[in-house]
């Protein structure tokens, strides 16, 4: 997702203007300041500023600087009436962040007079295939899809190729198959992994473990952010502190890999978890083995689900913009249908850390 870092800065800039109550003609940040804040090249910042200027958010005046525009639009797209329905394919639905995402999608579709067909794959490519075939047979106008096992080879590529040939708008959320060029609405998972790990380094930790999913790209990207932070802090052997798991075996791994996980924890002072569900299971394992959080080991997680705030040790976690992400996905697919297009700009949400009680400061 490196090619779309400028979009992350665009979203951040709009939030910055709103949160700081910048009025029209107020001075905005300089290129240099944006480079320092986001740790990116000047070329990336210039790309973001060009996008902001085209969107009517800022005005750049040669020799004077960059200013907030007289009128800037950050609102949703205008309602468009779509005849027919939109197919939504999600890996899960019953709990965690998924109901919020789907509710966000459905609310925008309803506002635009469009119905939703929902299918759940349980992260199985065979169920994904069945869902896609059923929705295509039902004549959906577009598809919003969370891929199943996105980091593994997928046997359903011919169905996606058929949709591409038929110019059917397809949008992915949370992750996107590496071979697809369809647009995506997602949290910046790489940044999430980096932010979670940075927080531990900033708290004085040096020996930081990581537990990540090996069969989905969100796990890979969160691992990438963990590695970036570790290397930036001079820890070059961090990969030896990483445990990979398959999502289908997440429950069982605390039984068959119990000893390996405990060894990993005992040799580190902190751990970054793939998500809150995993972190909560880890808290239980630690409690059962008389390992206290955060006194003995600190834990940072990702997704900031409702469980993070109410579990036995409230988790420091990187917030997932679930409902907003769902709304953005629906707006994007409606815009694609309106413009008779199969392309759109990717939407990457800037993650934010929510600090709670699971991290001990060592400095």
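-> sequence recovered:
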């Amino acid at each position: 997702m490196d090619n779309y870092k400028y979009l992350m800065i665009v979203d951040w800039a709009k939030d910055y203007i709103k949160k700081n109550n910048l009025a029209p003609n107020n001075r905005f940040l300089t290129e240099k300041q944006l480079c320092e804040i986001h740790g990116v090249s000047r070329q990336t910042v210039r790309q973001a500023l060009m996008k902001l200027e085209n969107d009517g958010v800022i005005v750049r005046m040669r020799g004077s600087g960059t200013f907030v525009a007289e009128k800037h639009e950050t609102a949703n797209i205008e309602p468009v009436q779509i005849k027919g329905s939109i197919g939504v394919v999600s890996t899960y639905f019953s709990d965690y962040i998924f109901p919020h995402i789907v509710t966000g999608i459905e609310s925008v579709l309803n506002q635009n007079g469009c119905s939703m067909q929902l299918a759940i794959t349980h992260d199985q490519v065979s169920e994904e295939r069945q869902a896609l075939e059923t929705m295509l047979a039902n004549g959906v106008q577009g598809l919003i899809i969370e891929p199943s096992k996105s980091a593994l080879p997928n046997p359903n590529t011919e169905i996606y190729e058929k949709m591409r040939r038929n110019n059917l708008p397809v949008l992915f959320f949370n992750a996107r198959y590496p071979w697809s060029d369809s647009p995506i609405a997602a949290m910046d998972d790489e940044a999430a992994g980096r932010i979670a790990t940075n927080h531990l380094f900033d708290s004085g930790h040096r020996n930081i473990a990581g537990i990540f999913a090996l069969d989905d790209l969100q796990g890979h990207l969160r691992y990438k952010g963990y590695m970036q932070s570790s290397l930036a802090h001079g820890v070059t052997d961090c990969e030896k502190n990483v445990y990979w798991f398959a999502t289908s075996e997440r429950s069982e791994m605390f039984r068959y890999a119990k000893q390996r996980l405990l060894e990993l924890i005992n040799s580190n002072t902190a751990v970054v978890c793939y998500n809150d569900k995993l972190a909560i299971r880890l808290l239980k394992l630690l409690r059962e083995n008389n390992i206290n959080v955060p006194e003995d080991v600190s834990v940072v997680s990702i997704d900031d689900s409702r469980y993070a705030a109410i579990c036995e040790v409230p988790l420091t976690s990187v917030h997932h913009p679930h409902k907003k992400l769902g709304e953005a996905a629906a707006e994007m697919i409606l815009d694609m249908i309106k413009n008779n297009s199969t392309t759109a700009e990717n939407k990457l949400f800037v993650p934010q850390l929510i600090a709670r009680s699971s991290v001990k400061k060592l400095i």
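The first strand starts at residue 58 and ends at 61.
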